[in-house]
């Protein structure tokens, strides 16, 4: 299958390993990955911070970049959530019904990685091998906005050698929330502290998730606290052999 | 020809409890430093969450019930004037008197005057959010009338000269030893040997309240529902103290937000399943009191209904925001909110705390008067999932953020980012230049404000040598 990659601005700039892993994984499964270079950012940060009109050109750019592809994948539940739910709304609010309809179409063809693997490609065993103990944090937008459910866990359970350790209070937000972490830094840090305690209580040396943004937050906190626990994007584990 | 009468007014300044003294982040700073508060909140919200989760799981049609509740509320909002007039007609037919209050000032004046006419110097109160919202107690006190709260938690707040911090459990920020101290200090006739054993605390409150019930002639309540079809009002509570207030006195004055009207008696079937399960985790509500006008020889012989707008029409005018008027004040969204759990209710500055407060208060007052509240959320979405009437709180928050005033520096950065990000080539160049971690120093630990908020507790990731885009191009 020919799959277009929406890398997300964060993975492109700061976490390219997650994006490269996505490419390696899909190619290993026998698919063709294309990277339309016109892509930039989904605009979620603008929408969520109250800059909806400013996000409109970003919506337009996403739609025009990916309109020609049947299947689009992004290694981020949060960006997929924004593309699916916010893009049509931003276009509609600006009175652009045509763009809203196209945004809706493209959004319906845009999948988060675990959705693509399980729902579209029909695989749970991706042939990965990762002999480590791992705990999984289900990020809020994957969980409640696009409802990936237990798809990431099903993928992880098939990874050879991987021991999955359940994260206590897993569904609690890590406190990231985009600009929330700046505007309400102390509240965000209090939420992060509890998430870090939960992660460390598992004894797993690796915490994984389907969103680089939340991992940047949790990982940044763990590193500051001098914790030996590392964060790793789900794609990197699934790509490992 | 149509005449545009202008936008409906928001809740007036200078009266009521809808505006805080300081922005949310500053108020949260104080709350976060209070370890006792955080422990009390964590314990209380975790307990309610678990209990509520269990009884909700028992119902196979919970999602359908939520949809039904949401649909009924949407229908109400689409024909609010008609339903309110029908309610007024039915209440009047059955011997009640209906008053219309455009805002807090009018409502307070109406209620104060009604009490004054009875000659009573003291009133008993059923726990009510609407009367908290308009600061009715303060207005009564200023007129020389003593209001006595009869809900146990509300009484604790009143005696402690405190403010409520939760919709359902106003004293959630207090633990039992603090409650004992408040009782010893402020409850008339309390036993000086009172312990902090919960049954002993409840018994002390009961002794005090029983005397008050039997010697007070006027009661003031809110209403959970007002049924347009029959003119029936309903109050839902757990202690029975509300029922005492609603049945014993000669005069009953009910202050009801205009959005609390429902079309028909049968609609309660939906809400009386949703409300107790979502709020206290009970299958059935313990005390549901309903009354229709005046029944000769039974219960209060004078009944007044005050219909309160106080900004609600302004909320109704906003297509996205109006969903907030679906709220049945169950407080499930507070109990699941990770922000509320850590900051408590006072940080929100308004009587409506938590996620619903963050969307309702700014709409009632106008966003400029509560500009920090729409940002007091990580948009995790737990509130939306928990809400029994399916209010999409995260979407309203995002919507209100558009109306909030933005700091000029932030605006400049966001505009520049949007400009670059809608031009792929410029974006790729800017990306290579962005070496955030360089200016942050070694291991990304010292950025200037507002980015310092991040580096106070978290390291920045190291900037990789090559972007994905460059790797792809070189592949
Ligand atoms: S918004 Fe929903 S969950 Fe929150 S108090 Fe209102 S009805 Fe309950």
User: Largest interface, and how many residues on either side?
Assistant: A-B, 69 and 65 residues
Tally of strands of chain A: 8
* Structure classification of chain A: alpha/beta
User: DSSP strand (E) fraction of chain A?
Assistant: 5-15%
Would you tell me the structural class of the helices and strands of chain B? alpha/beta
Q: Give the ligands present.
A: iron/sulfur cluster
Determine the mean pLDDT of chain A.
Answer: 97
Mean pLDDT of chain B: 93
Shape of chain A: globular
Question: Rounded to an integer, what's the Rg of chain B over CA atoms?
Answer: 25 Å
- The arrangement of helices and strands of chain A along the chain is EHHEHHEHHEHEHHEHHEHEH
CATH superfamily of one domain in chain B: NagB/RpiA/CoA transferase-like
Multimeric status of the protein: heterodimer
Tell me the β content of chain B: 5-15%
Helical fraction of chain B: 40-55%
Largest sheet of chain A: 4 strands, parallel
Number of helices of chain A: 13
Main sheet of chain B? 6 strands, parallel
Q: For this structure, what is the CATH class of one domain in chain B?
A: Alpha Beta
Protein name (chain B): Iron-sulfur cluster-binding protein
InterPro entries (chain B): 4Fe4S_Fe-S-bd (IPR017896), 4Fe4S_Fe_S_CS (IPR017900), FTHF_cligase-like_sf (IPR024185), Helical_ferredxn (IPR009051), LUD_dom (IPR003741), LutB/LldF (IPR004452), LutB_C (IPR024569), NagB/RpiA_transferase-like (IPR037171)
GO biological process, one term (chain B): lactate metabolic process
GO molecular function (chain B): 4 iron, 4 sulfur cluster binding; metal ion binding
């Amino acid at each position: 299958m020919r799959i277009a990659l929406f890398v997300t601005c964060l993975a492109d700039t700061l976490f390219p390993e997650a994006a490269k892993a996505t490419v390696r994984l899909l190619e290993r499964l026998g698919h063709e990955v294309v990277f339309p270079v016109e892509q930039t950012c989904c605009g979620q940060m603008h929408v969520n911070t109250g800059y909806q009109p400013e996000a409109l050109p970003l919506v337009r750019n996403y739609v025009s970049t990916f309109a020609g592809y049947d299947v689009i994948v992004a290694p981020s539940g949060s960006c997929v959530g924004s593309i699916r739910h916010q893009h049509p709304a931003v276009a509609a609010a600006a009175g652009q019904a045509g763009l809203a309809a196209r945004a809706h179409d493209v959004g319906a063809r845009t999948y988060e990685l675990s959705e693509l693997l399980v729902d579209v490609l029909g695989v749970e065993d991706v042939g990965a091998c990762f002999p480590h103990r791992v705990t999984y944090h289900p990020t809020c937008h994957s969980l409640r906005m696009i409802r990936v459910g237990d798809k990431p866990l099903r993928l992880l359970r098939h990874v050879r050698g991987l021991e999955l350790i359940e994260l206590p209070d897993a569904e609690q937000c890590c406190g990231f929330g985009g600009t929330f972490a700046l505007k309400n830094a102390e509240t965000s840090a209090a939420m992060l502290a509890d998430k870090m305690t939960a992660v460390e209580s598992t004894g797993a040396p690796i915490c994984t998730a389907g969103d680089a943004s939340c991992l940047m937050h949790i990982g940044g906190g763990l590193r500051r606290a001098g914790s030996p626990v590392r964060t790793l994007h789900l794609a990197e584990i699934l790509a490992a052999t | 020809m149509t005449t545009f009468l202008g936008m409906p007014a928001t809740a007036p300044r200078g009266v009521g409890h809808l505006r805080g003294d300081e922005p949310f982040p500053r108020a949260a700073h104080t709350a976060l430093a209070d370890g006792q508060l955080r422990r009390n909140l964590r314990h209380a919200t975790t307990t309610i969450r678990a209990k509520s989760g269990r009884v909700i799981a028992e119902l196979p049609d919970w999602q359908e019930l939520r949809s039904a509740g949401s649909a009924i509320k949407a229908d109400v909002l689409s024909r609010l004037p008609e339903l309110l007039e029908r309610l007024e007609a039915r209440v009047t037919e059955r011997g009640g008197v209906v008053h219309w209050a455009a805002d807090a000032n009018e409502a307070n004046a109406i209620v104060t005057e009604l009490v004054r006419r009875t000659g009573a110097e003291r009133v008993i109160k059923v726990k009510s959010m609407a009367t908290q919202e308009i600061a009715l107690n303060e207005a009564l006190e200023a007129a020389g009338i003593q209001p006595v709260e009869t809900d146990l938690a509300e009484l604790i707040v009143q005696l402690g000269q405190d403010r409520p911090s939760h919709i359902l459990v106003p004293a959630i920020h207090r633990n039992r030893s603090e409650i004992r101290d408040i009782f010893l200090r402020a409850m008339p006739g309390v036993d000086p040997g009172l312990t902090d054993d919960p049954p002993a605390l409840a018994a002390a409150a009961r002794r005090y309240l029983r005397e008050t019930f039997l010697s007070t002639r006027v009661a003031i309540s809110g209403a959970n529902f007002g049924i347009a079809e029959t003119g029936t009002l309903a109050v839902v509570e757990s202690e029975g103290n509300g029922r005492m207030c609603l049945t014993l006195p000669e005069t009953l004055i009910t202050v009801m937000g205009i959005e609390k009207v429902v079309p028909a008696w049968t609609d309660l079937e939906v809400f009386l399943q949703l409300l107790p399960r979502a709020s206290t985790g009970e299958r059935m509500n313990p005390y549901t009191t309903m009354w229709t006008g005046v029944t000769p020889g039974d219960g209060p012989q004078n009944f007044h209904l005050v219909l309160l707008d106080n900004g609600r029409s302004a909320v109704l005018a906003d297509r996205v925001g109006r969903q907030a008027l679906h709220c049945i004040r169950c407080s499930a969204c507070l109990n699941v909110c990770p922000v509320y759990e850590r900051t408590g209710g006072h940080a929100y500055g308004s009587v409506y705390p938590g996620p619903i407060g963050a969307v309702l208060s700014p709409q009632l007052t106008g966003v400029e008067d509560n500009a920090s509240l729409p940002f007091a959320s990580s948009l995790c979405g737990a509130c939306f999932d928990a809400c029994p009437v399916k209010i999409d709180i995260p979407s309203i928050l995002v919507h209100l953020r558009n109306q909030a005033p933005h700091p000029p520096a932030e605006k400049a950065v966001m505009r520049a980012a949007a400009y670059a990000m809608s031009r792929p080539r410029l974006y790729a160049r800017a990306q290579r230049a962005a070496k955030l971690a360089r200016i942050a120093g070694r291991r990304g630990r010292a950025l200037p404000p507002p980015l310092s908020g991040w580096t106070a507790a978290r390291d920045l990731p190291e900037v990789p040598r090559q972007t994905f885009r460059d790797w792809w191009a070189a592949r």
